[in-house]
Amino acid sequence: MKNLFLFLLLFISSTIFAQTTFQVSFPNEKGLLDGRLLLLLSKNNKAEPRFQVLDGHDTQLVFGLTLDNWPSTKPQIMTTGNTFGYPIEALKNIPAGDYYVQVLLHKYETFNRKDGKTVKLPMDRGEGQQWNLAPGNIYSKPLKVSINPKSTQIFKVSLDQTIPPIEEPKDTKYIKHIKIQSKLLTEFWGRPMYLGAHILLPEGFEEKKDVKYPLAIYHGHFPSDFDGFRTTPPDENLANDYNSRFNIYGYEKIVQQEAYDFYKMWTGPNFPRVLAIEIQHPCPYYDDSYAVNSENIGPYGDAITYELIPYIEKQFRGIGEGWARFTYGGSTGGWEALAVQVKYPDEYNGCYAACPDPIDFRAFTTVDIYKDKNAYYYESEFKPTLRPGHRNYLGQISATLKDMNMRELALGTKSRGGQQWDIWEAVYSPNGADGYPEPIWDKKSGVINKKVAEYWKENYDLTYILKRDWPKYGDKWRGKIRIYCGDMDNFYLNNAVYLAEEELKNLNSPAYEGEVDYGDRAEHCWNGDHTQPNYISRLRYHRMFIPKWVEDMKKTTPLGKDLSSWRY
């Protein structure tokens, strides 16, 4: 009887206290470590686990732990008690089975900001704020293990690999690259900060040395080089791979053909001669600053508008006046195109905002941050329903809004996940007492902070600002606002566009005289082209909007300005 009791006690103890533990070492590091330690588990080896963490049902597993002044000589233990995971929150709850394991440290840097706050954040290192590609981050080679959460297991992992530096793009006849140190951003962040750009020169630029050109400013995510421009035909040996997003084969060949076609148009006799630029402005929270001033990320709006753009115009013979600049872009770039036109009405002469991030926070994707109490759930007397976060053109949901936020929380706390929801928070929120952005909602529960929501409204709700400030700036915005969105946008961005359109149409003295258009069953990145499928039109932003602006600007440019010398 006594032996049976001891057996049962041991069995119960082993069941209760059993846990899977990963012991992580840093053999090539010296000193103290700061960053987010990410444990990655995959059921397949189609790619390294670090490349398989996604929104939606196709994702593999990630568990995160923040290192703060951790001695590099001391192994770190990752287990259920100190990690938070996605899509399974606790390590103890993963199913038993075989996994490919990888651990990566996304390194943080200490910033002593101008406002007196000290924060630890990941600095971009030329990759566009991608934690799984950032040079200098250390990681382990994938290791296949068998995990049984009901037994005690210890797996040793060595972070003995380092992601190498990224090579800078080379100048060509048509594409040049620049990088400047921003005085404004350097002062804010307390360390050297840079802005960059890829400049596409017009045909005849070297021969027409007395001509000055308008500036076409394409906003979007961090571009490694100027996108969609190729001086040679598509590669003959391209594989006929299947593209799951668009359900077609050979999409890479289509991409290259479109880029080559644009080159032929750009250098042909009828295309407007302008300078086209794609800018690089990653911040410590994301691959892109959102091109506005912010308490958390600093004066990026001023730095881009008053430092970077004048520098480009001086170096490459830009006209250098607000009437000779316009902005265009999609998604993040769509929001930015509209935001800078709104924030800097004298500095830009038109915006073309395609599939913009939420431009009205009454429809912050599927949340009304002013009226809703919870961002993750619809209110219910009995059983709350999760809000959708991502859908296809048929409305089939692949991720909830909570899912998407939980992924970011696993990747980093304090708005440091480096993904979409965290950058919105970093840009739009006031700065908190700890130096990090004040959350718009509790990341775990989804409960919305109404005080923060009011701050968002007054400073970054573009529809609200347009309506509020129309009596003051309406004459400067008139005829310059054009918005396009698919009515089945994957992220429900069309909901905010509907609300914005209603407000714009009701403006008067003057009327807004712009354009809002929708694509039938069109998904994300639709940009106003009703003649082509979305997988084609999304590749044609430059060739669509530059000629369109050159025609539209005739109505919005002050009399007496030069509209002909650069039209050779």
UniProtKB/TrEMBL annotation:
Range of residues in the leader sequence:
1-18
* The organism's place on the tree of life at top rank: Bacteria
Q: Which residues form a coiled coil?
A: none
Instruction: Output the PANTHER family linked to this UniProt entry.
Output: ENTEROCHELIN ESTERASE-RELATED, IRON(III) ENTEROBACTIN ESTERASE
Q: What is this protein called?
A: Esterase
Q: Which SUPFAM superfamilies match?
A: alpha/beta-Hydrolases (SSF53474)
Sorted alphabetically, which InterPro entries does this protein's record hold? AB_hydrolase_fold, Mycobacterial_A85_antigen
Alphabetically ordered keywords of this record: Signal
Gene3D superfamilies reported for this sequence: alpha/beta hydrolase (3.40.50.1820)
Source organism lineage? Bacteria, Pseudomonadati, Bacteroidota, Cytophagia, Cytophagales
